[in-house]
Amino acid sequence: MTSLDLARWQFALTTLLHFAIVGVSIGLVFFVALLQTRYHRTGEERWLRLTKYYGRAMVIVFAVGVVTGLMQTFQFGMNWAGFSRYVGDVFGAPLALEGLAAFFVESVFLGLWIFGAGKLRPRVHLACLLVLSAATMISAYSILVANSWMQNPVGYEIVDGRAQLTDIFAVMVNWTVGLTFAHVLFTSLMTGAVVVLGIACVQIARGREVVAFGGVARMAVFVGLGAALAAAGAGHFQGVLALEQQPMKMAAAEAHYETEAPAGLSLFALGKIATDPGPPFLNIKVPAALSFLNSFSLSSEVRGIEQLQREAEARYGPGDYTPVVALMYWSFRLMVGGGVALIALLAWGCRLAATGQLERSKWFLRLAPFAVSIPLAAQAGGWILREGGRQPWVVTGLLRTDAASSDVSALAVAGSLGAFLAVYAVIFWTAGRVLRSELAHGLPARERTPRAGADLALGY
Questions:
Q1: How do strand 162-165 and strand 156-159 relate by DSSP bridges?
Q2: Cα–Cα distance measured from residue 180 to residue 237, given in angstroms and rounded to the nearest whole number
Q3: CB of 104 within 8 A of CB of 22?
Q4: Which residues pair with 165 in a beta bridge?
Q5: Could you tell me which residue, 85 or 455, shows the higher pLDDT?
Q6: Which residues of 206-224 are buried (b: 16+ CB within 10 A; e: fewer)?
Q7: How far apart are the first and last CA of the chain?
Q8: pLDDT at position 456, please?
Q9: Residue 390: which of 252, 274, 272, 269 has the closest Cα?
Q10: What tens digit of pLDDT does each residue of 280-332 get?
Q11: Residues 340, 337: Cα–Cα separation, whole Å
């Protein structure tokens, strides 16, 4: 492999691992805030104990997210110096906002929530967690601003071969950012709900604190289903916008080579779809569905990869502007398929909860813990499509990936890749051990004597 290949592998792996933690972290912070709000409103001890229980997991996951995120930023100077020089003037504002949100607001209010338990007034203590939840969302928004600019650059001008910011409002607020943030936010809330549900179902199946974990499981299925449906809606309109801004990405996601009117939606295809040898030997399609999804018309034209490649050559010059079609096709289906599976599972859970059968359904209690892996896989598929579908551009239409890398040897990048993966392995192994230890024992013991204002201590 060349140094560019290794640098791309390194950034892809670290991004997928980090963002899996980010999704869980945002979802868990929101859910723990929901549990503490429930305790604050009702005064029922079970919600207090559940807040402590899931709060410990939240703190551990949050710490892993911070460490993996810090390590990821090193690559901008190590492997992607050309990219940093080119976009530094544009990326400065959103990355500064993310730094303030992640390392100032989040750190301060997480510390207040942990160490202020029993010392702060109950409403103030709850407010710290609500501010923390809002700060995690602001942090995610600022990063998505930077990433969305790579997908659809706006509010800039090219000066001396570099992009310079001319309109901060255009960069921070646009449809690309808004739909991306909505999709990521609802996906994260769904992920947090599924994680909470999976843990609760394990405890219910073991006969531990069935009343308490049954209550949080019912809450998780309803919150999770609402978030999953909202994520699906935001994702659809995000795809419609991407068809306008990045038509090659969406054509690759459908292995759609020839321009058609109307165009069918491919559900499942087998064959050499990475190239264009002709139609695959198996391709199950829904007639005219792709045209309808893209423009709400059963007869609209959808451009194919071949026409888009000719248009790109006419605009940018000779070259291959087609991403790896097979990877885009299956990553898209991993994302959508995972989302559909979760909607079905959560809808089943809502039906069981509404009829009072959730705690007694053996099959649901067995399947829900395994479902924790589904949102993580679906998120990975979504990010592979989002980033891989942009290739060969690192900034769409402006900067090619091969022009953005640093002038370093393949051996140097291989060494840093090995070091990064080793550190990540230690982090995840350690966090897994600690999480297992913290969660295996079940809910904290009941208070012998209820203490006003001092009953939220995590027990550290």
A1: antiparallel
A2: 10
A3: no
A4: 156
A5: 85
A6: eeebbebbbbbbbbbbebb
A7: 47
A8: 53
A9: 252
A10: 677 788 888 888 877 778 888 889 999 999 999 999 999 999 999 889 999 99
A11: 5
SS3 content of the chain, % helix, strand, coil (to 5): 70, 5, 25
Supply the pLDDT for residue 4.
Answer: 94
CA–CA gap between residue 43 and residue 327 (Å, rounded): 51
Q: Which pair of structure tokens corresponds to residue 226?
A: 């609402």
Cα separation, 392 vs 317, in Å, equals 13
This prediction has a pTM of 0.92
Encode pLDDT of 89-136 as tens digits: 998 888 888 887 777 889 899 999 999 988 999 999 999 999 999 999
Of 180, 305, 288, whose CA–CA distance to 252 is shortest?
A: 305
**What's the number of CA atoms in the CB half-sphere (13 Å) around residue 342?**
40
Give the Cα-Cα-Cα angle 238, 158, 249 (nearest 5 degrees).
25
How many contiguous H segments (helices) and E segments (strands) does the chain have? Answer: 15, 6
Angle, in degrees to the nearest 10, between helices 210-245 and 3-42: 140
Mean pLDDT over the full length of the chain: 90
User: Which amino acid is it at 398?
Assistant: L
SS3 label, residue 81:
helix
Q: What is the pLDDT of residue 347?
A: 97
Q: Concatenate the DSSP letters of all residues of 411-448 into one string.
A: HHHHHHHHHHHHHHHHHHHHHHHHHHHHHHT-SPPPPS
Cβ neighbours of residue 71 closer than 8 Å, sequence gap 6 or more: 14, 420, 423, 424
Q: Classify 156 as helix, strand or coil.
A: strand
* Burial bucket for residue 196 (CB in 10 Å: 0-12, 13-18, 19+): buried
Positive or negative, the Cα torsion across 71, 74, 78, 84? positive
The string of pLDDT tens digits covering residues 366-423 is 999 999 999 999 999 999 999 999 999 999 999 999 999 999 999 999 999 999 999 9
Helix (H) or strand (E) holding 162: strand 162-165
Alpha-carbon 344 to chain mean position: 20
Element (H, E) at 159: strand 156-159
How large is the average pLDDT for residues 211-220? 95
Distance CA 439, CA 203 (A): 10
